[in-house]
């Protein structure tokens, strides 16, 4: 998020029936799900790797990484490409939604009830007319290992 700017663009997406979001500055692009090559002995949330225009991209099941189940690949499934520590990482989502422009002052801190298995993954929460959108912190999601996440619970 840029200091001094009063609004932020959030890319929203679905994991199951729940609407989530991330700062559009964190998203490089959104792609369809190609064939994914499995990687043996990888963490259970790693679906495998793909070749994206000559770059090897690790694909992560974002639902599993957040501790809320796992995604099933369907026609609406997409992969959000993010850059992390000089690597491209793909976040598997169930469906892409909209990009929304929101005022930063309308963001609230994540409730304490979200601190369990998702602790630290959620930056803030935004309330639309009838729905809550949990805004994830991509860096935290990618840095926290399973062991570290269990110790946050």
Structure description:
The structure is a single chain. The chain is mostly beta strands and 153 residues long. Helix content is 12%, strand content 47%. The protein has a single domain, classed as OB fold (Dihydrolipoamide Acetyltransferase, E2P). It has helices at 62-66, 138-143, 146-152; strands spanning 7-15, 18-23, 27-32, 46-52, 55-61, 78-84, 87-93, 95-103, 107-109, 122-127, 132-136. The strands form two sheets. A six-stranded mixed sheet has the order 8-1-2-11-10-9. Strands 3-6-7-5-4 form a five-stranded mixed sheet. The two termini are 27 Å apart. Residues 148-153 have low confidence and may be disordered.
Count the domains: 1
* Model regions low in confidence, pLDDT < 50 over at least 5 residues: 148-153
Q: Quote the distance from N terminus to C terminus.
A: 27 Å
SS elements, strand count: 11
Shape category: globular
- What top-tier CATH class fits best? Mainly Beta
Strand order of the largest sheet: 8-1-2-11-10-9
Q: Tell me the quaternary state.
A: single chain
Which percent range fits the helix content? 10-25%
Query: Strand content of the residues, in percent?
Result: over 45%
Gross CATH architecture = Beta Barrel
pLDDT averaged over residues: 86
From the alpha-carbon coordinates, what is the Rg to the nearest angstrom? 15 Å
Structural class: mainly beta
What is the third-level CATH name, the topology?
Answer: OB fold (Dihydrolipoamide Acetyltransferase, E2P)
Order of helices and strands: EEEEEHEEEEEEHH
